[in-house]
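Review form for a predicted model. The reviewer records the input and the model, then writes brief findings.
Reviewer: anonymous (R2)
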Amino acid sequence: MTTNFDTRAQEWDNDPMKVERAVRIAQEIMDFIQPNHTFDAFEFGCGTGLLSFQLKDAFNTITLVDSSEGMIHVLKEKIAKAGIQNFKPLHLDVFEHDLKLDKQDVIYTLMTLHHMVDLNQILKLFYSILKPGGYLCIADLVTEDGSFHAHQGDFDGHKGFDRKELGVVLSNNGFRVEYDHLSYEIEKKVGDALKKYPLFLMIGRKEDH
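Model under review:
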C-alpha cells in the first residue's frame, strides 16, 4: 500500500476533488471545534498535507504523520515553498516508532482509518496521544460494496464504515461521539460507471476512564 501511495504522491494534488474534499472537511472541523491558537493538532495519514494546509492558521502546531515516504517528500517541498513554520512532518509507522509527542488537543484523519485493519489498536494510540477532552475527528467512507478499492488487489482494510457501529467502537475506546454528519461525496469511475461514495465526519472527545 505504501509503495502505491509513493508512486501517486507527485500527482496527488492535481485532483480537484481531493482539494475540494479537504476544504469541506477542514471547514466542518473548524466550525464544530472552534479551535483557539493554543491548540496543538496531529494529522494521521496526512498524505501531501491537503487537509492540514486548510487548517494551518487554526492551530499552534500541527504534527503530520504518514508512512509513505513519497507523500512526506512532497509535503516537505510544499511546506518549504509556503514558508510554513508550525508544521512538523514525520515519515514513520506509528506502531513501530515512539512518537515522543506532547499531548495533543486535536487529532484528525481523512480517508485513512479504513486502511487500518485493527481499529482498536489505532484508537488506543489516539487516546494515549490526546489530552483529556481532546477531539478525535474521523472523515472516511460510509460502508461501500468493495468497489472503491477494486483496483488494489492487496487491499485488506475496511469497506467503509457503518457509522453506528463505528460510534460503538469509539465509545468502547474512551471517546464520546459528539458529531456525526455526511460531509462529502466522492465520484469515482469504476469500470464504465460513475459511482458515488459518501463520506462522513465523526468527532469524538476523549473521556477519562
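Findings: The helical segments are 2-8, 16-33, 50-55, 69-82, 119-129, 163-172.
Further findings: Residues 90 and 161 are 27 Å apart (CA to CA).
Recommendation: see findings above.
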